[in-house]
Write a structure and sequence with these properties.
The complex is a heterodimer of chains A (323) and B (271).
Chain A lengths: L3 E6 L6 H17 L3 E6 L4 H8 L4 E5 L9 H15 L3 E4 L3 H14 L2 E6 L1 E5 L2 E8 L4 E7 L4 E5 L16 E4 L11 E7 L12 E5 L8 H11 L3 E4 L1 H5 L20 E5 L5 H4 L7 E6 L12 E4 L2 H16 L1
Parallel strand pairs in A: 1-2, 1-4, 2-3, 3-10, 4-9, 5-9, 12-13, 12-14, 14-15, 15-16
Antiparallel strand pairs in A: 6-7, 7-8
Chain B lengths: L1 E6 L1 E3 L9 E3 L4 E3 L5 E3 L1 H17 L2 E8 L4 H9 L4 E6 L8 H15 L4 E5 L10 H9 L2 E11 L8 E6 L3 E7 L3 E5 L12 H7 L5 E4 L7 H5 L5 E7 L8 E2 L5 H17 L2
Parallel strand pairs in B: 1-6, 1-8, 6-7, 7-13, 8-12, 9-12
Antiparallel strand pairs in B: 2-5, 3-4, 9-10, 10-11
Helix pairs in contact in B: 2-5, 3-4
Classes of the chains: A alpha/beta (323), B alpha/beta (271).
The structure holds flavin-adenine dinucleotide.
Chain lengths: 323, 271
C-alpha cells in the first residue's frame, strides 16, 4: 500500500500543528501516489474534523469512550488496530508527549521503523526519508526508514499546511476499536501548569529566563515585561532544573519547540540544545552580561549588560514608549 | 525492588558549536577534544532509581551497551552507589540503530534475570532518537511510561504497585502502574544527578563489573555490528546559521535600554 495515515489527538486543534501534520501527510501521500487517512483519536471535535476533511481523502473518527482521555496502553492498542485495518505505507504523528510515547511502540508492533522530530520528509525511490536535528541541534541527519510502515513523529509546525479542498470530497467514517482488555498503567491524576494565555508553542511573544537570573524571583520581573508586550514566560533547562520555573516552561531540544514572532532570552547562554527549540522564532533578542555568549550569534539584536540593571529600565521604557 | 538502569556513554553534548566536527563518510561526530560522558537523561534515570531505592529498598543494576570506554560510565554509576554493573561490549564500529540497541539490552536483561523496573533516559544527547525505551518495552513484552520524573511505591495491595509522576506538554500526570515496567526518565529539579564522592569513585574501580560479548547473548551479533536493519543514516551535515546581532547603541545605559525597548516594540507592533 502507498497510503498515509495521520493520527491526530482530537483534544487539540485544529491549530498550526494539526495543519502542519495534515500538510505533511498530503505531500507524502502525493509523492507515494496514495491516499491520506486522517484518524481523529479521542472525544469528537467538529472543527478538527472539518479541517481534516479539507485535506484528507478519508477521515476516520475513533471516539470510543475508552479513548476520550488518553491512557497509553488503550491508545496504543487502538492505533495498532486502526493501522492494521488500513495497512498504510507511512504513519504520521505530532511532536506532543503522547505521540512520542506511542510512536516507537507502534512501529515495533507493526514491524515498521520509526523516527521522530522530523522537519522534512522525502520519498527517494520508494524509500521514506526524514530530516531531523541531531547532536543537540549541532547537526542535521537524514534518516532512511528500512521497514514498512514508516512511523514518523513530526515537528508539525515546520510543515506547510496543505491547500484546503472541498471537504465534501472526503469520506467520514466512525471506527470501532476494541481496547477494553488493555490493562497496564493508568493515568489517575492530571494537572495543568499555568503557562499563560496560550500554549507556548502558539505564543506570539516569549520572554525566557535562564540560570543567569540566579533565582526564582526575577521571573516575576520578567513576567511584568512580558505582560507589557503580550508575551508569555519560558525558561532554559538550567532554570527549570533549579526549580525556578515549572518543567512545562522548558524550551529546547527536549522542551517546547516554539515559533514566536519575538523571543527575548534573558541570562540564557545559548547552548545548542536550547537554540534547537527556537530555530523557528522570527526574531531573537538577548540580554546577557557576557559578550561572548553564543546567544549573540543567533539573535537580531541584544544588549550586553547585567539583566538586573536592564529589566527595571526596560519595564519603564516599554510602558512609556507604548503610549 | 529489582531495578535495572540503562546507561549510554556519549560524546560530551555541551562542547561549543565551534569545536563540533563530523565525519561525513562515517556520518558521525568526530571526538576531537570532546570527552566521553554519561548521557544526562540516563543519569537522571539513575538518580531517580537511587531515590526510589532509598525509600523502597532493593537493588540497582546498571547496564550499558557500548564501546569498552563505556566502563567509565558504569564505574561512575557504581560510585553513585548502584549495586551491580554489566557492560555489553560493542565491538562494531557503526552506531547501532535504536532497534538494534533495544534487542541487545533486552537480551542482556533476560540474562540478568527477574526485574521490577527498567529505567532509561528519555533520549540521548547525541542522536536523540528517543526510541530505545519504547522499543525495549516491546522487546521485553511489558508496558512502558515515558517522561517520568519521580517514582513512589504505592501503599496497599493493588497490583498497580508503582505511582509515577510524569511530565506532559501542559503539566504533569500521576500514573499507577504494575510491575514489571519500563520507564523513560526526564529531568526535573528533584532528579539532578548527585556528584559521587572522590572516595567512592576510587572504590568503584575495585568493584566487580561483568563484561559480556554480543555473541554471548544469543542474538544476531553480526546484524548489530552492521548497525541494524531498522533505519540508516544516509546524510549528516552541519547547518550554517548566521545572524548578525546588532548591539543596541547609546551613550548611557538609559539610552541603550531605550533603544532596546524601541526595537522590541517595533517587532511586536509589526506582528
Ligand atoms: C541531552 C540534552 C538535552 C538538553 N535539552 C535542553 C533543552 O531542551 N533546553 C535547554 O534550555 N537546555 C537543554 N539542555 C542543557 C543545555 O545544554 C544548557 O546546559 C542549558 O541550556 C543552559 O541553560 P542557561 O543558558 O540558562 O544556563 P548557563 O549556561 O549557566 O548560562 C547562563 C547565562 O546567563 C548569563 N548571565 C549570568 N549572570 C547574568 C546577569 N546578571 N545578567 C545577564 N546575564 C547573565 C551568563 O553570561 C550565561 O550566558 C540539554 C542538554 C543535554 C545534554
Amino acid at each position: 500500500m502507498s497510503d498515509v495515515v495521520v493520527f491526530l489527538f482530537s483534544s487539540s486543534g485544529p491549530d498550526r500543528a494539526t495543519e502542519g501534520a495534515l500538510g505533511a501527510a498530503r505531500n507524502l501521500a502525493d509523492s507515494l501516489g496514495g491516499r491520506v487517512h486522517a484518524v481523529l483519536v479521542g472525544a469528537s471535535n467538529e472543527a478538527l474534523m472539518r479541517a481534516s476533511a479539507a485535506v484528507a481523502d478519508a477521515v476516520l473518527i475513533a471516539d470510543d469512550p475508552a479513548l476520550a482521555e488518553y491512557q497509553p496502553e488503550a491508545c496504543l492498542a487502538a492505533l495498532v488496530q486502526i493501522s492494521r485495518m488500513i495497512s498504510p505505507r507511512a504513519i504520521l504523528l505530532g511532536n506532543d508527549a503522547y505521540s512520542q510515547e506511542l510512536a516507537p511502540r507502534l512501529a515495533h508492533r507493526l514491524g515498521g521503523s520509526a523516527t521522530g522530530d522530523a522537519v522534512e520528509l522525502a520519498v527517494d525511490d520508494g524509500r521514506i526519508r526524514a530530516r531531523r536535528p541531531v547532536y543537540g541541534g549541532k547537526a542535521v541527519a537524514v534518516i532512511e526508514l528500512l521497514q514498512s510502515p514508516a512511523v514518523v513523529w513530526l515537528r508539525a509546525r515546520a510543515f506547510a499546511p496543505a491547500e484546503a479542498r472541498d471537504p465534501s470530497g472526503a469520506t467520514v467514517t466512525r471506527l470501532a476499536v476494541d481496547v477494553a482488555s488493555a490493562g497496564g498503567p493508568r493515568i489517575i491524576e492530571r494537572a495543568v501548569e499555568d503557562a499563560g494565555e496560550s500554549r507556548l508553542e502558539d505564543a506570539r511573544v516569549i520572554v525566557s529566563g535562564g540560570r543567569g537570573l540566579g533565582g526564582p524571583e526575577p521571573f516575576r520581573d520578567l513576567g511584568e515585561v512580558a505582560s507589557l508586550i503580550g508575551g508569555q514566560l519560558a525558561a532554559s533547562r538550567a532554570a527549570c532544573d533549579a526549580g525556578w520555573a515549572p518543567p512545562s516552561w522548558q524550551v529546547g531540544q527536549t522542551g517546547k519547540k516554539v515559533a514566536p514572532g519575538l523571543y527575548l532570552a534573558v541570562a540564557i547562554h545559548g547552548a545548542s540544545q536550547h537554540l534547537a527549540g527556537i530555530s523557528d522564532a522570527k526574531v531573537i533578542a538577548a540580554i546577557n552580561i557576557d559578550p561572548d555568549a553564543p546567544i549573540f550569534k543567533h539573535c537580531s539584536f541584544g544588549i550586553v549588560e547585567d539583566y538586573r540593571k536592564v529589566i527595571p529600565l526596560l519595564r519603564t521604557q516599554l510602558a512609556a514608549q507604548k503610549k | 525492588m529489582n531495578i535495572i538502569v540503562c546507561l549510554k556513554q556519549i560524546l560530551d553534548p555541551l562542547i561549543p558549536v565551534r569545536d563540533f566536527r563530523i565525519d561525513p563518510e562515517l556520518r558521525a561526530a568526530v571526538q576531537g577534544s570532546a570527552s566521553l560522558v554519561t548521557n544526562i537523561f540516563c543519569e537522571n534515570a539513575l538518580e531517580t532509581a537511587l531515590q526510589l531505592r532509598e525509600r523502597a529498598g532493593g537493588k540497582i543494576t546498571v547496564l550499558a551497551f557500548g564501546a569498552p570506554s563505556a566502563e567509565d560510565s558504569l564505574r561512575k554509576a557504581l560510585a553513585m552507589k548502584a549495586d551491580d554493573a554489566v557492560l555489553v561490549v560493542n565491538d562494531g564500529n557503526v552506531h547501532p540503530d535504536p532497534m538494534a540497541v533495544a534487542r541487545v539490552l533486552a537480551a542482556a536483561i533476560r540474562k540478568i534475570g527477574a526485574f521490577d523496573l527498567v529505567m532509561l533516559g528519555r533520549e540521548s544527547g547525541d542522536w536523540g532518537a528517543g526510541q530505545t525505551g519504547g522499543l525495549l518495552a516491546e522487546e521485553l513484552g511489558v508496558a512502558s511510561v515515558s517522561f517520568v520524573d519521580a517514582i513512589e511505591v504505592a501503599d496497599g495491595e493493588s497490583h498497580l504497585k508503582l505511582h509515577l509522576k510524569r511530565q506532559t506538554d501542559t503539566g504533569w500526570e500521576r500514573v499507577a502502574a504494575p510491575t514489571p515496567l519500563v520507564v523513560t526518565v526526564t529531568n526535573d529539579e528533584h532528579n539532578v544527578p548527585r556528584i559521587p564522592k572522590t572516595r567512592d569513585v576510587m572504590m568503584s574501580y575495585r568493584q566487580p563489573l561483568a563484561k559480556w560479548t554480543l555473541d554471548e547473548l544469543g542474538i544476531d551479533a553480526a546484524a548489530v555490528r552492521a548497525g541494524g536493519d531498522y533505519y540508516r543514516v544516509v546524510d549528516l551535515s552541519i547547518p550554517v546559521r548566521e545572524t548578525k546581532c546588532e548591539l543596541v547603541s547609546g551613550d548611557s545605559l538609559e539610552d541603550k535600554v531605550s533603544d532596546l525597548a524601541a526595537r522590541i516594540l517595533q517587532v511586536t507592533r509589526a506582528m
